[in-house]
Write a structure and sequence with these properties.
By secondary structure, the protein is mainly α. Helix content is 65%, strand content 0%.
């Protein structure tokens, strides 16, 4: 019964953007729906970072509800009892609400993607112009199901770092795929065939960024942000003592090493130092890449976006260390990585389309309402 209640909550949240898309004067409501789903997914990724950074991942220690109910209101007695047994533990009313709000919005995005899938297949059956295969939203629907499974494992496996990191990366995969789909059904600027020569460089930029985000996720899920307390050195040394074997052993419990012992400081330093050092490579490459692409009119805006977000990421990453990991700053750093991913995905899409014979989507077209 409470699962049905959860579904209704997700549906009610999704009805707000669905209603907004419906009443807006737009000739392609499907396009608007994809864009607003992309924006909400970005918000969800950032709120997921907030959930993790506030230690709210186990605010409700079961899944998908909270102590077998649809709301912390209903589970208030169980939450109070758990908090009384362990006042500094993972369960409190505030953390429970943070965790459940994250789940509610994840369900709402699932509803929006179901709506996309239904619209796309209706357009295919009725031969309506939609400029996108229905298999795109269908694949997104499959992806969000897998993401939900990892969300459940995140709770049931007690925040195991590899599960939480995979959950994060799947969320960013969903965001990036939605961004690609949104770009695919949006009219493009004038084509510049010479931009097509940068396809390999664009793919390299995406690969480097994804790997760096995964390293950042590993830092966050292992709570290794303050393993190095100074900059540019790490604990007073350019190459401090590090334990890469235990730091990057993937299958282990939170706070433990591969042998079941408490993870050492040297292992946490290895995690932090690797993310920090590889960031220099990624920043240098992305800055060079974006500066080179600014000469193309069709790529200038996303390239400028990359340059701006790189600067913000450097400043927020540095201040995480100097200011001892303030919450708002840490959430901004997580969100910056997601926004940077969107810009790089957009650049990859536009470069991939910079070739002769690519069908152009008209600026105004007809799509199912």
């Amino acid at each position: 019964m409470f699962v049905l209640e959860l579904g209704l909550i997700g549906l009610c949240i999704a009805l707000l953007p669905l209603s907004w898309v419906w009443v807006k004067a737009d000739d392609n409501k499907f396009r608007k729906l994809v864009w607003i789903t992309t924006f909400m997914t970005l918000d969800l990724v950032m709120f997921g970072g907030f959930t993790r950074l506030t230690d709210s991942g186990l605010g409700c220690p079961d899944w998908p509800g909270c102590y077998g109910t649809s709301s912390p209101f209903i589970a208030h007695a169980q939450i109070a009892a758990a908090n009384a047994l362990m006042p500094t533990g993972p369960v409190s009313l505030t953390k429970a609400w943070i965790e459940m709000i994250h789940r509610y919005f994840a369900m709402a995005i699932g509803v929006l993607i179901i709506a996309q899938t239904a619209i796309a297949w209706r357009a295919r059956i009725k031969r309506l112009p939609l400029h996108v295969s229905p298999w795109w939203p269908t694949a997104l629907l499959g992806l969000i199901v897998v993401q939900g499974i990892f969300g459940a494992w995140t709770v049931t496996m007690k925040l195991q770092p590899i599960i939480v990191t995979t959950h994060l990366m799947l969320g960013l995969t969903l965001l990036g795929t939605l961004g690609w789909l949104a770009a695919r059904i949006t009219p493009l600027p004038a084509y510049e065939p010479e931009a097509g020569r940068w396809r390999v460089a664009a793919l390299a930029a995406l690969a480097l960024l994804v790997f760096q985000i995964a390293l950042g996720g590993w830092v966050s899920t292992n709570y290794a942000v303050l393993a190095c307390t100074d900059f540019p050195t790490c604990n007073g040394a350019w190459i401090p003592p590090m334990d890469f074997h235990h730091g990057f052993h993937l299958w282990r419990a939170l706070g433990m090493d591969a042998n079941g012992d408490v993870i050492t400081q040297d292992a946490l330093v290895a995690i932090h130092w690797t993310h920090r050092t590889f960031a220099l490579v990624v920043v240098a490459y992305l800055a060079w890449f974006a500066l080179k692409l600014r000469r193309f009119e069709s790529l200038r805006r996303p390239a400028n976006g990359v340059l701006i977000v790189i600067l913000i990421q450097f400043l927020t990453g540095l201040s995480n260390i100097v200011l001892q990991w303030p919450l708002a700053n840490a959430v901004a750093h997580n969100g910056g990585a997601a926004i940077l991913l969107l810009f790089v995905v957009m650049l990859n899409f536009r470069i991939a389309c910079s070739r002769p014979g690519r069908a152009v989507i008209p600026a105004r077209d007809t799509a199912p309402a």
